[in-house]
Recover the amino acids of this structure.
């Protein structure tokens, strides 16, 4: 009965920290979760959300607006910045991450299937890492796709040859990569937040809406409070900054060399909290 | 024979409260290899005990170790433990084989070994033919069997089974009980909760009777019965002269009741000293006073013990 047990434990026995085993377990969890994220029933909503910004752009590609600002190529970077900040970043990425990452644990509690992981010979911290990476890859793939395709759909149908030059010789590619980078950072930050919310709160929609409100009202906050948000750091990295309106409290953007490590540092901290929580978690589906 | 702590499941003064509500209280228990059944009415604390044993719940007080491993170390614990819970739910969209494989991979087995172990487990629970169908399309009995397969697939040394016979048809029940016996014979700990008393009686080496979160009795069922002095043992003797035997047994101090069977070919006796009674019976036979056809204890089984200690007749198949 115990031969197979030895197969695994021998591989872990030599070193005090069995990294090889952990990596194998993370890979197994990652694959299983990725399958659910992309092909599960809950994925339909994410696909719709990811495609949401592309529908109006497709319509605009076919029926070009006659307004003057749409005739000027130089306006397009500003138009994209508005679209990216208002729709892609603050809505699609935000709610997409909320749905993906909250469901990593909360979804399995609702389905009453989380105990199978808890009954496996795997450290619960390893489980958090595997699930987080699966959520991260899912969100990064989908929302980076949205970010990139939205930009191309905005430029290419209206000023094809100018746009090609812009993306191959001008600032276009740099802007595109910067926006994609901001999307990835947003997935990292929001993902960790929503993962931990899904572990602590029975109905995660309420904290998600509270954070959504906080992020939208960020422009009204005093400079110190602005820094207690994800959007402040992401806005600081935007290649085409937007005016926040006449009521905005102006604050200096945080430089990238501070913004990026800060975001990553806070994400790590939040994941440690998630690991602590999951380590002490009980399975009591009735009370969930 | 003394068994070291590394071979025992030990509950050391364990209590579990759900807020104000008592789950189990002050449990001190040592479980040795073999088949141990947890018996008790609904809400007695059987599932709580099993969930505590596997770390799905954490004790409010006390400490639990399985073969020397604390329950808060799942990476070590579940190399040696398998648990078939009562939760009748599964990850979505998987076939039976994929379900087993996916969690064996999480255990850390490589793909080839995971496939081998899945196949072996499927064979053991007789579910090979349905292995490549979606679990969502399984009948209740098949779902029960695939959960059982999942709990034994990694070849644990301790198998914990919460109502494992629920939903199984009589044929599969018998096969499953035979499987449990084989596993116990291989030296495994099997801890089984069940409300089907005659099946528990049939397969268990020992029982733990729980009621309202407390252990009411534990040990070999006949040993437990022997210790219940307030309930005299009932014995039925089928013989040719029951009236004569009744007169004879009434002379004994330990006999508290003797009653003729309705067909007047047998005698029910209640005695406080079963051993003394059997000795007396042997003498009566040797002296040619009666010819005995059969002798059988009437309330030396789990149902009777359950009824005496817990006050209801328990469940039945």
């Amino acid at each position: 009965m115990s031969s197979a047990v030895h197969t695994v434990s021998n591989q872990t026995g030599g070193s005090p920290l069995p990294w090889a085993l952990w990596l194998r377990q993370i890979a197994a969890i990652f694959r299983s979760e990725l399958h659910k994220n992309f092909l599960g029933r809950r994925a339909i909503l994410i696909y719709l959300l990811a495609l949401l910004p592309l529908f109006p752009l497709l319509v605009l590609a076919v029926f070009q607006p006659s307004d003057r600002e749409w005739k000027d190529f130089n306006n397009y970077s500003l138009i994209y910045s508005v679209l990216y900040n208002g729709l892609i970043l603050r809505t699609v990425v935000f709610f997409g991450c909320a749905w993906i990452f909250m469901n990593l644990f909360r979804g399995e509690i609702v389905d009453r299937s989380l105990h199978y992981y808890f009954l496996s010979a795997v450290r619960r911290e390893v489980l958090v890492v595997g699930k987080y990476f699966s959520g991260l890859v899912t969100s990064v793939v989908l929302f980076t796709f949205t970010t990139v395709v939205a930009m191309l759909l905005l430029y290419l149908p209206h000023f094809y040859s100018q746009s090609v030059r812009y993306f191959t010789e001008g600032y276009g590619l740099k802007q595109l990569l910067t926006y994609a980078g901001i999307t990835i950072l947003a997935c990292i930050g929001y993902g960790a937040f929503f993962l931990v919310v899904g572990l602590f709160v029975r109905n995660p929609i309420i904290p998600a809406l509270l954070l959504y409100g906080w992020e939208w009202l960020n422009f009204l906050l005093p400079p110190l409070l602005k820094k207690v948000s994800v959007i402040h750091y992401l806005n600081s990295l935007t290649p085409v900054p937007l005016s926040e309106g006449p009521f905005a409290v102006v604050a200096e953007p945080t430089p990238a060399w501070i913004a990026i490590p800060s975001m990553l540092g806070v994400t790590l901290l939040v994941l440690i909290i998630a690991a602590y929580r999951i380590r002490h978690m009980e399975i009591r589906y009735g009370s969930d | 024979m003394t068994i070291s702590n590394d071979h025992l499941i030990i509950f050391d003064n364990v209590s579990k409260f759900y807020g104000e509500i008592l789950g189990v209280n002050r449990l001190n228990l040592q479980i040795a290899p073999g088949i141990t059944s947890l018996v008790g009415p609904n809400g007695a604390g059987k599932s709580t005990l099993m969930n505590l044993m596997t770390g799905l719940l954490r004790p409010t007080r006390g400490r639990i170790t399985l073969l020397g491993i604390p329950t808060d170390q799942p990476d070590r614990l579940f190399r040696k433990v398998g648990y078939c819970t009562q939760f009748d739910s599964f990850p979505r969209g998987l076939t039976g084989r994929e379900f087993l494989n996916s969690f064996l991979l999480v255990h850390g087995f490589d793909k080839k070994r995971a496939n081998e172990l899945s196949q072996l487990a499927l064979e053991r629970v007789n579910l090979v033919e349905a292995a490549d169908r979606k679990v969502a399309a399984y009948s209740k009995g098949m779902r029960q069997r695939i959960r059982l397969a999942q709990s034994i697939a990694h070849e644990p040394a301790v198998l914990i089974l919460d109502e494992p016979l629920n939903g199984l048809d009589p044929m599969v029940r018998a096969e499953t009980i035979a499987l449990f016996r084989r596993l116990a014979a291989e030296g495994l700990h099997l801890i089984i909760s069940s409300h089907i008393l005659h099946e528990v009686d049939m397969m268990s080496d020992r029982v733990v009777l729980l009621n309202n979160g407390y252990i009411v009795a534990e040990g070999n069922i006949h040993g437990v019965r022997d210790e219940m002095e307030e309930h005299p043992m009932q014995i039925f003797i089928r013989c040719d002269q029951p009236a004569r035997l009744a007169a004879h047994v009434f002379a004994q101090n330990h006999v508290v009741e003797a009653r003729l069977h309705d067909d007047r070919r047998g005698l029910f006796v209640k005695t406080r000293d079963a051993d003394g009674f059997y000795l007396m019976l042997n003498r009566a036979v040797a002296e040619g006073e009666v010819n005995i056809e059969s002798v059988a204890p009437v309330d030396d089984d789990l149902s009777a013990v359950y009824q005496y200690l817990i006050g209801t007749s328990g469940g039945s198949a």
